[in-house]
Amino acid sequence: MKAMRLFAVALLLLSGGAISTSAVAASLEPPPGAASCSGCHTVSIRTKTDVPRIHGRNAAEIIAAMAAFRTGARASTVMDRIVKGFTENEIVQIANWLATQKEGRNVGQLQR
Q: Domains plus CATH for the chain?
């Protein structure tokens, strides 16, 4: 149920109901928690890793993945524990910010 609520909040936010992606994009500074993602989700396309690049990925995909980690529907080594440290609103803000990021940024870089 909480995952569905998170997804509903995400859809509302992505549709412009509470915050626009362009407003998030205007901020070069990541929202709280977003910069730490680059510790595992590498920025460099030259780095070989099994951890997916999430920089520039669709916000709805990130939100859905986080909801699946939180409920246990998606297996993980650490993401199930990490996601529990974020509120639904923080997850949406992080996902929206990540979706606007492009390769070459110097702040919390995370790419596909």
A: 2-100 (1.10.760.10)
